[in-house]
From TrEMBL:
GO terms for biological process: glutamate biosynthetic process; L-glutamine catabolic process. It comes from Collichthys lucidus (Big head croaker). This is glutaminase. Coiled coil: none annotated. Belongs to the glutaminase family. GO terms for molecular function: glutaminase activity. Gene3D superfamilies: Ankyrin repeat-containing domain, DD-peptidase/beta-lactamase superfamily.
Length: 144
């Protein structure tokens, strides 16, 4: 039972294996754990994990300035406004790095939200200012 508790499984709904009723033959009945499923029949924890993985790939592409990878992610349906654990989007990362081509793609083609705030209350334009990326600041303010 302790393995279930460590794995975060609600042990109140889990029955321990027991001998089959009747004959006393010593046959052990086993149970199988089935995770909670989403509407499509997928384990929701696995789906959540994969979505987190996609977010990290998008942020890494923004960090590297890889517009082609961002275009592939966008065309495959990944939400470019998705945020990491600090509330930072791909636009935050691209702004902090000064990747103007990534910023332009995210704003013009992918519909990125320039008003998103991260965990510290910073918008992408504030990130660009903080890192002295003047071209990124102008692009985010709509000057370029």
């Amino acid at each position: 039972m302790s393995l279930f508790v460590v794995a975060g499984i609600d042990t109140g709904r889990v029955q321990q294996p027991r001998l089959t009723a009747g004959s006393g033959s010593g046959v052990l009945g086993l149970m199988a754990f089935s995770p909670e499923l989403d509407a499509c029949g997928n384990p929701w924890r696995a789906v959540h994990f994969c979505q987190g993985y996609q977010i990290m790939n998008v942020l890494l592409a923004a960090l590297k300035g890889d517009v082609q990878a961002l275009r592939r992610y966008f065309l495959s349906g990944v939400d470019v406004n998705a945020v990491d654990y600090d509330g930072r989007s791909a636009l935050h990362v691209a702004a902090a790095e000064g990747h103007t081509e990534v910023i332009r793609f995210l704003l013009e083609n992918a519909g990125a939200n320039r008003a998103l705030k991260d965990r510290w209350g910073s918008s992408p334009v504030q990130e660009a200012r903080r890192h002295n990326k003047e071209a990124a600041v102008q692009l985010l303010q709509g000057v370029m």
